[in-house]
Design brief:
2 domains; 4 helices; alpha+beta; 161 residues; TATA-Binding Protein; elongated
């Protein structure tokens, strides 16, 4: 669901991080960035944020004299949390309905047979949530491409330094 990419840069991790920090401090980039030890986040500027706006998470791993960069696009944390809460709610309701229906069937209690409908309804909810997530991601494809192209420019500028 979340687009990813990997790049190997022939620069040691510490040097690469320092160069990226120097470039980002210049303020010429069209994003908001946050950095931690070996981890960067690039966000769409606040004035351009939409419901499905992505952010780019970059992690770096040292491999000798080169650095492996792993990038992943994801929705904003609020949207991502909501999606996972809904997934968990659907899974929980399906399992609860299944267990409750099996228990009532085992007890020969026909009063609760209607609860079987919650299992396929929950599965349908999961499928619909997946489709909505996929469509939402396509609505922000322009921002994904913008973040990726700026990241590529940043890496190109620090690789030639």
């Amino acid at each position: 669901m979340r687009p990813t990419f990997q790049v190997v840069v022939p620069i040691p991790k510490q040097d690469l991080q320092l160069r990226i920090h120097e470039q980002l401090s210049k303020g010429v980039w069209n994003w908001e960035s946050y950095s931690f030890d070996g981890y960067f986040e690039m966000h769409v500027p606040a004035k351009e944020v939409r419901c499905w706006s992505p952010h780019l998470s970059i992690s770096m791993d040292a491999h000798g004299d080169e650095t492996r960069i792993h990038g992943r696009f994801a929705p904003r944390q609020q949207v991502w949390t909501l999606v996972w809460v809904l997934y968990l709610a659907f899974v929980f309701s399906a399992l609860f309905a299944l267990l409750f229906a099996l228990s009532s069937m085992h007890a020969n209690d026909s009063e609760w047979r209607w609860i079987w409908i919650l299992c396929p309804t929950s599965v349908l909810g999961i499928v619909l949530l997946y489709i909505v997530s996929y469509v939402g991601q396509s609505w922000s494809r322009d921002q994904i491409h913008s973040l990726k192209s700026q990241w590529d420019e940043l890496i190109a500028s620090v690789s030639h330094s």
